[in-house]
Amino acid sequence: MESQSLLGSHNSTLNSSGSTATVTDEEWTEDSSSSSYSDSDSTIPEWEPYVDDFTGELLYIECHPFVVQNKDTKNKTALPEPLTRNNLRRSTRGKFLKLLRRRDSKRKSKKNQKSVDINETNTSKVKFQELHEGEEKDVMLEIDAENRHNLSSDKSLAESLLGLIVSTLSDGNRVMIAGFSYDSKARQERNIKIGDWLKTINNIEVNVQNLDDILQKFINRDDVLLKLQRVAGIEVTKDPPINELNIESDFVRELLNSKLDEEQSLSQILCNHPVGVVYIDTESLKESNQNCEDVIYCFPKPFQKNTLVTSRGMFITINHLLFDLTKSRPKVSTIKCNGQRANVVFTNIDKKLFLLMLPENKITQKEILLLNNEIIRLLKFSYEHLDKCFTSEKYLQQVDNLFFKLFARTLSNGLWSTTEQFGAMDNSDAKNNSPQFEHAMPVAPSLCLPYEAQVQIDDALSELEASDYRDWNEEPLDCQRLFTVLGSALFHAGYLLATHFIQDDLVDVYCFCKQQGLFHLSKTEPVKSLVLWKEVFPSSCNVSQNTTIKIPDGKRYLLVVESGKDILAVIMEAAGCTEPPEENLGPDAFYVEEAQATLAHIQELGLSELSERILSLEPHPQIVRPLSRNNKRKSDLLTFSRSSLNSGKDLPKKNEVTSILKKRSADTNLVGPSISSNSLQDDSCDGQSEGSGSQGGYSEISDDSRKNFRRDLKYDSNDDGSDTDEYGEGSHVSIASFDVSEMRQYILSEIEEFQPPQLTAGSENVLYHFVQLDINQGILLCPPESRQQTTAYNLIINNFRRISLEIHFLFQNTIRFKNMPPQYIAKSVINKSLVAIKEHGILFECPFLDDQENKKYWVLGRLFYTSRPKELYVCFQDGIPQNLIEIAFKINMRSVT
Amino acid sequence: MSAYIMCGTSGGGLPIFSRKKGNAEALPFSVIGSLNGIHMFGKPLGIEVLETLTDDYAVSWREFEDSVIIIGAASGCSIEVLNRLLEDVFNAVVLVVGIKEIKMQRNIERLKRELRVCLPVIDRLLDSLDCGDSNKYSSDIVGFVETILCPENHLIQIVLESFTECVDSLFCCVLIEGKIAVGTESWWSLHPDELRLLSFLAVSENTTDSKDIPVYLPYKSLTVAFRFVVCTLIPDVQICCLCGPKPTLTEIEHSATQCFKNSTDILTAAAQCLPRNFPLTYHIDSNILGLLLINITTKKYMISQIPQQSSKKTNIGNSHRLDILRTFFYRAVMNNLIQSDKQDQSNPSVNSEICENIGIETYWCSEFHKCHALKINDNILCVLYNSAVPTHALNAITEKSFKQLISDKQVCW
Known about the structure:
The complex is a heterodimer. By secondary structure, chain A is of the alpha+beta class. Helix content of chain A is 44%, strand content 18%. In chain A, the strands form five sheets. Chain A has a six-stranded antiparallel beta sheet, with helices on both faces. In chain A, strands 3, 4, 5, 6, 7 and 8 form a six-stranded antiparallel beta sheet that branches. In chain A, strands 15-22-21-25-24-23 form a six-stranded mixed beta sheet, sandwiched between helices. Chain A is globular and about 85 Å long. Mean pLDDT of chain A is 69; it is low at 1-42, 66-133, 232-248 and 629-737. By secondary structure, chain B is an alpha+beta fold. Chain B folds into three domains: 2-126, Beta-Lactamase (2-Layer Sandwich), CATH 3.30.450.70; 151-271, 2-Layer Sandwich (Beta-Lactamase), CATH 3.30.450; 288-340 and 353-407, 3-Layer(aba) Sandwich (Profilin-like), CATH 3.40.1840.10. Chain B is 36% helix and 29% strand. Chain B has twelve helices and 16 strands. Chain B has helices at 29-42, 79-104, 108-115, 119-126, 153-167, 185-189, 192-203, 249-260, 264-271, 318-336, 348-355, 394-407; strands spanning 2-9, 15-22, 47-54, 57-64, 68-75, 145-146, 171-176, 179-183, 211-217, 221-234, 237-243, 288-295, 300-305, 359-366, 369-376, 379-386. In chain B, the strands form three sheets. Chain B has a six-stranded mixed beta sheet. In chain B, helix 2 packs antiparallel against helix 4 (119-126) and helix 5 packs antiparallel against helix 8. Mean pLDDT of chain B is 87; it is low at 310-315 and 343-351. Chain A: This is Protein inturned.
């Protein structure tokens, strides 16, 4: 398939005349329909091979293009489902589908042609300075015997046989290694590096055209000799897609790879830090215990190197002694380990004890308590019970991997570093972490969309949840459904857009996605497609926790599909009225497609674009940015230079873009403030939505990012445009198509009215930041993180987080006291002065603030305790007295409407 | 509602003393041994256990001079306060026996005997924990020394100067119910912890007789002992001085009577200031239920519960007010408005960041009361209001009271 598409694209570049291109297209479609579309009703989904045979679990990630021209076409051909499934959603009639598909692919080949054209003209991507003295390497590679005879349609020959994903070097002819397929042998081969030029196979020179032919020849050999040449000195020109992509896919690879590579050496590194987890059976602890029989699980391994294991006796004693002495369970201990302070959190589970240790300079005592809760929650959600996850062999690797990632992340100050990066990390790094507050809480940050958008999402999710398939099929379905949907939630770049989960389940899913790095992925490198399937144990269905409600005996599965920055998470239940649950059930293609179609539908409605725009409003309309001393002047300069740019060289480029973006730019206009001149208007909007008001070198850098942004837009608009196009073509049947484009227009225009009320009293907005924690609902409301960082802003925000966390723990006294049964109150040793506090505020002076008279700002926290506790934290400039009740009211008003 | 302190040798784990506060039972020996064992166990592994938090309790292990370990467990209070208390307890031990005796540990029984003098001081120290229950000494604050602002202070100061010359000691002060009314310049140059311990020592056991106790100063003089002499002038009012082998106690008593015989009226009037602790003439807003004035450089404070003028129903009992003020100070003011003088060596960057973020005002609102603290230069005033006062008015009222308190030169603040 890859070969064909490559061939096709090559042909079309060669023959730019329409007629020849159509011929090749035609051939190509014929071929493809015979190979992959032969079974018209159920295409074998591309993730199918990745389903774990034993557990039925799946994590499949398909990345965005490696090198634009080739991968692009590959993706298009390999990933038909968002388009085809949309059709399927409306009609499952095979014939029509076939027709559509045929058109579909034709359209795509045309697109190939276009994209290649673009790439040919656009040479400023990445230049590999091809120094011919680059080192040559010979590599013997085994041919994958399994794949030899069942060549998958959506993989290239090189991928199936060698496990290599190939692309071309900048001349468009020579073959470059662009990546490795999942669990291939080539991946382990150290001599093959991404970016290498594949010169020969068994001493036959290869190029893009003959690669597949050559591979065909060797299909029955056991192994082939590859000659590779390092293409040295990668010159990164204006924008560096390849370079970046390589790093990004490292992260993805890490996500996919649940085994720990180089485990030994990395464990060694971890052992030098005061980090660790241990799960101990306190009952089987004996004096003469030599082989640590009581230790059920520990990480890092081995036992002897793990500080917690060697000193576990101490913690076990603390655990029971202090309970005897004080009648309350120990929560956290601080120890000094090799001169470094570290905190150890206690979690008692029946007779077992779970300990987690992390250094204090990376995570404070209060933060580690929150983190521990999150870990416990995650383990319970993923494995039902801690016993199960630590005793069952099949989970151990996953759990090891989870803790490794957690420790690596904590030690590298919260960065999602890959194994390799962590190994290379400077381990003496004693830098402190910036304080955490809102993102350490068990709440999902949510983004409030305009009303109509919210309705549309809810509608789409409800439809998915209802799984009412009667009307979609001509023949009545005579089988029981496989799953009932317990709930679903939609996230965009880590922000919750809508949830139909029970609160606890929402937090479960949120923690899961967060700790698994899915949100990080969606924020930093939007993938083409991601499918995750896993058996889970949501809190709402945990039999041991809910004794009052009868929970059907069955299994629950988490399905996460991601596309771009959007993540749709669904929990499905196989119990009660469904088909009886199977052991280790894998994902069902139909349900996955349903979820993907729902996500595609939501994206089509423009909702992800809408959220993106709301997120990129800089600053968020409800807050103001504290300006640094020198910054005000700079920002003045900035606006000046921007306007001068507008009049100058920026204009022609602008025009070029608007021609592609015609429709889009009309939309974008609505975001920004209206400025009289048309061309200016566009520009200001762009500047705003991309948020690249980076101070200083505006001309160089932001120009670049601007270009990037435009390219993205272009890419997007192509994509979207074609979607709607397609709808136009297929609109004979799809009744909804009209609605979709209209609705999209409407929703996107709604952002015009997106004018949230000012939260603070007084004529000027003085609010720097706000956080509303609704732990009961699992919802967090706060303005999105700013991409513009200034000293003053960082100082204030870090201080805000530090203080807010203190205040949060202060409020716990009040909440605890209120929940205390009256008969215990007299006996309780709680400090009576702390039991009724509902508001706490501190005024600070920030030396970096610009304002001459007023450098002071408040950090306030308030606990609302009506029926359930809700906390609000705000940070604002001193001057006008603010009423927190009023602010809370205004915040909530917006979240309701 | 309970607190325990135990002290043992860190090498052998031999108990030296153990004290408790509140209605808790005394700790059995086995528990003391286990607590000590936890600390000992970690040593060969290169691990030192420092503190543990439970839902209600804070537990802290502190080893001093590689020779004694002091373990504290207390409910309701924060770990910072408990840690500070353990230091004070150690200083109290040093005060009585000196650092050498502690390090040598030749004879534990003798050490125990010698420490009997300081046990009342240690018990009193325990009262500075904010366990949330009211007691007689809810006014004690860890790390700060209590003063009393009598309108007669400037007069007493003059008499005190003449007494200083008589006894040939620069370190003298006048205590009213254990609170410093006036002290010489040198007296204030002592470390606040030393001042605090000496004040407690002066009022421990009985206040009627004169005392002559040899003391080591935990900061100033760890190895050489001074004589700490206390004479009672009138009930509740004592004069203290630190001196060398001369003059004798009788000579000092004589000098005291000579100097103060004409000032008894002044002293009686000054003692009238109790329990308000600041002049009656000051007009204080009727919504104010209590005051705490602190100087953060000299580490002295004045705390007052203002008796309700009218006998309106009060939500809070009088001594409970001091508790609230103190807890407010410990939890909200101490961390946020006062820069910690001890730089934490292990993470200096945290401190540098906090330095840039020292607060200047703080408040908290509870259902029954409001607390407000304002910092002006080196002084902080914490005020306890009833809950009817609107939050935005707190600042103005506090500032008004503040000015009145610190502008008066007569009270020698």
